[in-house]
Amino acid sequence: MMEAFGLYLLKSTLVSGIFYLFYHAFLRKESFFSLSRFYLLSSVAFAYLYPLVSIKIEHHASQPLALISTIQNTINQFEFTEEPPVAVIESINKATSYINWWLLPIALVSLAFLFRFLKNIIQLRKTIYANETIKEPQFTLVLFNQHYTFSFFRYIFISHAVWHSPNGSKIINHELSHLKHWHSIDRMIMELLLIAFWMNPFLYFYRKALEEVHEFQADADATKHIDQGEYFGLVLQQSSACSYSPLMSPFSYKLIKKRIKMANYKSHPIKRSLLLLPITLGLLIVLASNVEINTSPAIKEQLRTNHLTPITPPHQVEAVLLEDDSKPDKQFIAPIASKDLIKTSSGYGMRVHPISKKKMMHNGVDYVAELNTNVLAIGDGVVRKVNHDFVEGKGYGRFVIVDHENGYSSLYSQLNAYKVKEGQKVKQGDVIGLLGSSGLSTGPHLHMEIKKDGHFIDPESVIKQ
Q1: Which one of 241, 279, 328, 408 is least enclosed by Cβ atoms within 10 Å?
Q2: Both 13 and 90 in a single domain?
Q3: For the chain, what is the largest distance between any 2 Cα atoms, rounded to a whole number of angstroms?
Q4: Whether this model's pTM surpasses 0.70
Q5: Which GO terms describe its molecular function (predicted)?
Q6: What range does the domain containing 261 cover?
């Protein structure tokens, strides 16, 4: 869960950064403000939504995909699970409990941002209820005793003196533009994103860029009814050095040089086509990272089993049958001499687990014999693993893994003692250990598994009768 969350944060941060840098390089100096605003909002939304979306592509070819062939060539090792589901869950829970402590500072900063957000909302509500209000068809005036003017959704906060001054209506026109374009929604969205994802540095640039676009839009609307020189003179006259809440859309002299420049600049219409580039880029990002190829059942089986990890319980993984039409040679001997064998208690395939009582895949064969019966190497090979780190009552207990020629590997588990060491060469019939009941076991027996090129196969299909 923690890994998935971290990957989500990484993806969303990188993508938001890519799209912001494109805006900064190509769009921030253009005068199509509505498109710029749409680009900023849609790109930041895309950055946080695209990791949650997957696209399924049907693949019906009879041959495995190139990806599968590459994986098959790369993953040709034989890995056995050393712990059953219970042990795995316990270790994961411990790791998760440890990692969760690192979430604490992240959560604390988010809480601080949330506190500031709620404080600003409460302060605005108090200002509304504590002062005289005048309801108009399009907006509500809040007459308060401050020398600055700002808007928040349908509320325009203005002082008595400015409201009754000759320039009051001109200032109101500027704030009405913020209301008409619903700029407060943009500000709310950015504040909420910063509460949850404050660690993304590009969100602060997005917020600043949106504030600029808001002012450019409001200036463009206001100067339709007033001379630009007179308008910006009024802006300077009404300026103040006070700080504003991120939720406010203020009438101020902030960005005054940029605002005057943008008020006199008109982008060439052809530059609107630049927006096709980020759209194409977004499609490429989705296709590159969120495509799920839906293949035929046989290919799905190959892909799934080739991704076995050490924490995947072997009895929960279905085996992959050999793809070729020829039957494998029966080149191995049984791991228990016939004179010592009492019975074969459980074969390869689906069965009911004797302890959990659940039906699941049994990827090997169980041989029952007397305690400390010799366990034999089924063929020539090299001992790759001798497990000394095991827990009684869990998993395979003591086990040995032997690598053979032609991609075969064999595992012998639930042993009572070892007779070999890692790296040792063994011959067919050599004693590699003594039969026991270590690990998850109901009594003395040998559990043996065989893999061919990393795939579980039925041991009896390659063992001489």
Answers
A1: 241
A2: yes
A3: 112
A4: no
A5: metalloendopeptidase activity
A6: 2-132+161-284
